[in-house]
Amino acid sequence: MKLFPSPRSLFLRLSILNALIFLLPFVAGWHWLLDLGSNFQVQAVGVQLILMVLCGLYRMKKELLISSLLLIPGLFHLWPWVGFRFVPADAVGTADVMVKVTSFNVLHGGEGKELKTKKAKITSFLKETQSDIIFLTETDPAWVQTATQNLPFHSHQVPEVADPSCYSMILSKYPLLESEIIRVNDGVFPILRAVIEIQGVRITIIGVHPLPPMGSGSAERLRKYLAEVARLAESAKTSESAGGPVIVLGDLNVTPWSRRFTELIQRAELTSAAEGWNDLTTWNAFKKRGIPFTGLMIDHILHTRDLKTRSYTVTSDLHSDHFALTAELELK
Fold first, then answer.
1. What CATH code is assigned to 89-331?
2. What SS3 class is residue 143?
């Protein structure tokens, strides 16, 4: 009696078990754990590719074929997010209404020289990026003072003064026609809403950072949070005071394969600035981009379909486990 299965049997079983992860986005609405598991499509694709290589090395043709077929649903999930976009050089910056936005989770914490170095590097990056709108989260009240001192061109802020109960902030080069802090679930990461005007077009900015769904209670709070974000985006499109394009940005703590993400973009009719730009990592526990299949795509820049993405970049090495997202959006 064999105590361990043969490599042929083992690789086949592992391929089938791993491929079950590809089915989770289709049933994620049944239970919060299924939705949590659906976030790991990139990792499941990586594991499936490793198993295929092992089958090839062991010359298991049948098992290699089965593993390859099982990979197809995983590639289906990743397909919209990978690829290459061609933007003519003479087309960049020619739109009448163009807005450049940056979203970054700076990672709360640090002290002394380490914190000073971190803030200096982040503010230097933000100056170089020259975005019109900046959304920062996991900040502390001292970040309001840091931004005021180091980003003088972004003098319009939400909140306007240091608020110890608000760990996020919007910075704008343009005057804020409206601004609002919306408390959801009594958390320290409220929804921030601001309205700006560029060339006569009013644009609503919604900065978000729900807490991660690490249990049934927190999963329900995330659902309520994102439902409120969808409601705000919906109402902004038809509002008499705003009534224009909407941009939602921040650390959503869900990937594009989560049912909660799908509900948000479908209800609010949003699209992701990241589609087709071939970058599937915005968070990595190792704070590096070079380790394959170890990151998650949980930070997002979303916008209504009257905007289109001209450029999209992800910047790492900013003393955070999250990476900064920057997108240039233009009015269609």
1. 3.60.10.10
2. helix
